[in-house]
Design a protein that fits this description.
Elements: H1 2-33, H2 40-65, H3 75-91, H4 98-123, H5 127-145, H6 169-184, H7 188-198, H8 200-205, H9 210-236, H10 244-257, H11 269-287, H12 295-324, H13 329-348, H14 350-353, H15 358-363, H16 365-370, H17 376-382, H18 388-415, H19 421-439
Helix pairs in contact: 1-11, 1-12, 1-13, 2-6, 2-9, 2-10, 2-11, 3-4, 3-5, 3-9, 3-10, 4-9, 6-9, 7-9, 10-11, 10-12, 11-12
């Protein structure tokens, strides 16, 4: 039993490598293509824009873990329904305060999900049929409530969507949602939910009350989508009944991209969060290119291609995972995060150490030394360069990464029943490198004795 659970845990960790690698690549490209992202207002705006997608993905994640292929295709129209309901009630001066808004948003989300669960459990309709019916019904109801985008959000939300700073009520909502799920994972109810997602029949024979657990998953999904609707209302400061389709496609793509299994049993806020952030960054990076009138179509095409590639990768990851299981996702996260932070620091301080005025460049020499950056004269002459300290730091970091990866590979090969090809190749490369160093040692200052 223990090896089986360890295998599942390893498989889950392996799935996280893909979104971790992708978010590092996208963050690096986004920082270079759109330097405005690397600022307080840039990060603040990113949090405001990405929050509705993150919480909608959390809603889908809670249902996907429960199994039966439960993916609520109506998550987008439901979020829009809560949005237009809040705006309409605010225009009628029925609900204007924070307590009323949160009560209405979460209440509508939970009631819809309870209806969803009741039809699936007792009427025994397939979840995909219920989800599609809800999608079509809510899309029409939204247009009845608010025929076109407009209206005003409650007054207390007026400053929520500004994005002038990182710390905002929207960030607090997202953090509370993440903390709530992490605390939920410590409960026996979550263990029953995972067991039901892996094998519902085995969970039932073990004494798990399947119907209660499934209803609980739908309630959690309703809370998440309600919070997402509040963040979306704060973002646009009005009502919009037309965004349901886009939100459903983006949240479903983010769910798959985050490594959450649509078959059930595997998923969490880490993968869902990474998937949602990757989707936001893809849109941000594409926005830095000028595709003209087809900009929106290119973005939708990118989402569709990514969804197809993610589904195909889902089939390949179990095979690839057996060969890269020795790589820790969190170790990869630390290494890639260090690289991305270095790129962001470089971009954020670029204006300071690449001034147009040579006289001002000389005056900023102390700043360059402080951040270990290139001298202004060298930067102006060559466009992009590195100081000797920077070169040493980058080479040392690269050497540490290569050494750690090589050590993990050797350790994995040593535990195998027979020596693999990598160990022989690694030893051969070391021998060839040694002969190469000896051959050119006369040209290296390291091997020269004394000053010339």
């Amino acid at each position: 039993m223990q090896p089986h659970m360890a295998e599942r845990s390893s498989s889950t960790s392996t799935y996280l490598l893909v979104p971790i690698l992708l978010i590092a690549v996208l963050l690096g490209i986004a920082a270079v293509r759109g330097p405005s992202l690397v600022s307080l207002s840039g990060f603040g705006s990113a949090i405001i824009v990405a929050a509705p997608l993150v919480l909608a993905t959390f809603s889908l994640m809670a249902l996907a873990v429960a199994g039966r292929g439960t993916v609520d295709l109506a998550v987008g129209p439901l979020l829009a329904f809560i949005n237009v309901s809040i705006v309409k009630l605010n225009m009628l001066e029925v609900v204007t305060g924070p307590f009323g808004v949160f009560f209405v948003a979460i209440g509508i989300g939970v009631l819809y999900q309870l209806l969803f669960a009741s039809i699936v459990i007792w009427v025994r309709v397939q979840p995909i049929i219920v989800a599609l019916s809800g999608f079509l019904a809510l899309t029409g109801i939204n247009l009845v409530i608010l025929p076109r985008p407009g209206g005003m959000a409650p007054e207390f939300m007026s400053s929520w969507g500004l994005g002038a700073t990182i710390f905002s009520p929207v960030l607090l909502i997202v953090l509370i949602a993440i903390a709530g799920w992490l605390l939920f994972t410590l409960t026996p109810f979550y263990a029953n939910l995972r067991m039901m997602g892996y094998d519902e029949r085995a969970a039932w024979t073990s004494g798990v009350r399947i119907n209660i657990v499934r209803i609980g998953a739908h309630v959690i999904a309703g809370v998440f989508v309600g919070l997402g609707a509040i963040c979306y209302t704060a973002l646009i400061a009005s009502g919009d009944p037309t965004q349901g389709t886009n939100m459903t496609l983006a949240a479903t793509t983010a769910l798959v991209l985050g490594g959450v299994s649509l078959a059930g049993g595997r998923g969490g806020v880490t993968g869902a969060l990474l998937g949602a952030l990757n989707l936001y960054l893809i849109g941000y990076v594409l926005a830095t290119f000028n595709f003209g009138a087809v900009q929106a179509f290119v973005t939708q095409m990118a989402y569709g291609l990514i969804l197809m590639a993610s589904l195909l990768l889902t089939l390949l990851v179990p095979v690839i995972g057996r060969h890269i299981s020795f790589i820790s996702p969190w170790g990869a996260f630390v290494v890639l995060a260090s690289v991305v932070l270095g790129i962001m620091l470089h971009v954020a301080t670029q204006a300071a150490y690449l001034p147009a005025d040579p006289v001002a460049a000389v005056a900023q020499g102390e700043l360059l030394t402080r951040y270990l950056l290139v001298s202004p004269a060298e930067a102006v002459s060559f466009g992009l360069g590195f100081s000797p300290i920077q070169k040493f730091a980058f080479l040392a970091a690269f050497a540490v990464v290569v050494l750690a990866l090589s050590a993990r590979l050797i350790n994995a090969e040593a535990r195998a029943k027979r020596m693999g090809l990598f160990l022989y190749m690694f030893a051969a490369v070391l021998i060839v490198a040694l002969f190469a160093v000896v051959a050119v040692q006369s040209n290296l200052p390291l091997f020269q004795g004394g000053a010339p």
